[in-house]
Amino acid sequence: MEKLRRVVNEIAYTQDCAKLSTLNRSLLPVLKVVSSLYRVALYLRLYLYHFGLLSKHRLPVPVISVGNLTWGGNGKTPMVEFIAEWLADSEISPLILTRGYAGGDEARMLTRHLLGTPAKIGMGANRAATAACFLKQYGYIDPKSYLFEGVNQKVQSPLNLGQIGVVVLDDGMQHWSLHRDLEIVMVNGLSPWGNHQLIPLGPLREPLTALRRADVAVVHHANLVPEQSLKDIELMMQELKESLSIFFTRMSPLHFFEVGNINFRIPLDVIQDAIVLCVSAIGSANAFVQGIEKMGAFYVDRIDFTDHHSFQTKDIEMIMMKLRDLEGKFGFKPVVVVTEKDYDRDPEILNHLSPFKVMALRSELQIIPRRQHTKDDFRELLKELLEVKWSGAKH
């Protein structure tokens, strides 16, 4: 299955089919048929929701959806965390709804990062049912008590740290059964649209015209993308929706922590002049590896798995072989660096890489100031859009 996923991913992000291997090209007819069936199912589902034959649940609090149009590597979960922290700092208790892929690695990471804040995390495929349970348990704040007085003004009620004020929907763009008041779409700047085809022939979960539903677009990994490419991405999105507000983000590395001792922070310069093996099963491995290369390692090698892949014994054996090869080549032990999401997926299996040192990289999302679009501008825009959308929904 892992090999098939690799092949499909390679096809999806190859612009010129002639560059594919003979084996990969032989899969194209099958993928085209499946992609056509997916398109029919997609439009049928949209039709049913558009004409009310499938119902949308509306919650008594505003819903911010953070989603994407392509699979993996778009920065959805870091953006969810960014928004949740902003709301928590404003003494508004957010409820994060996440489906819980790969056993809930992203949910575990969010739980650790948001520890000590009023943020709550609900996991389950039926996001509406999960939200209903949390709203019943904790109650909710009337949005008028903070939306129309300003999110940045502290509401005096001590219950605000417990009662839910806003729901943040992780990976919500295609989750149409739950009404949302604000739609944020994340775009991977390194590989925005692949071959422009619907899955599984391409990476698109919806046609690009779905961008017209978005209120805000965020180009992620923008620090790793040439200026002209950023302009091209921006122009293409504005051609679809001229009024679309576009921001740019990056993942900023904070520190490492050693597997088995998560509370001990290791400075980033520990890998300067080191031999590093990057191991990851995420949607944008290139961004992860490029970030490690910029930290000054002597040599960086990599082993990539497909997004959400759970490491198996055979994977550990393959990684060990690579580490021994690197040790033999350079004469001293390499270190393994994984992403925090990979650590949270299965921290125990990484211990089997002993005696080699394994570290996880802790990073956070940052808004890149560009064309006067700063972090404060982003927060203010979300506040204004929530006020407008919620007010319009209630009148």
From TrEMBL:
<keyword id="KW-0418">Kinase</keyword>
<keyword id="KW-0443">Lipid metabolism</keyword>
<keyword id="KW-0547">Nucleotide-binding</keyword>
<dbReference type="InterPro" id="IPR003758">
    <property type="entry name" value="LpxK"/>
</dbReference>
<protein>
    <recommendedName>
        <fullName>tetraacyldisaccharide 4'-kinase</fullName>
        <ecNumber>2.7.1.130</ecNumber>
    </recommendedName>
</protein>
<keyword id="KW-0441">Lipid A biosynthesis</keyword>
<comment type="pathway">
    <text>Glycolipid biosynthesis; lipid IV(A) biosynthesis; lipid IV(A) from (3R)-3-hydroxytetradecanoyl-[acyl-carrier-protein] and UDP-N-acetyl-alpha-D-glucosamine: step 6/6.</text>
</comment>
<keyword id="KW-0444">Lipid biosynthesis</keyword>
<keyword id="KW-0067">ATP-binding</keyword>
<dbReference type="Pfam" id="PF02606">
    <property type="entry name" value="LpxK"/>
</dbReference>
<keyword id="KW-0808">Transferase</keyword>
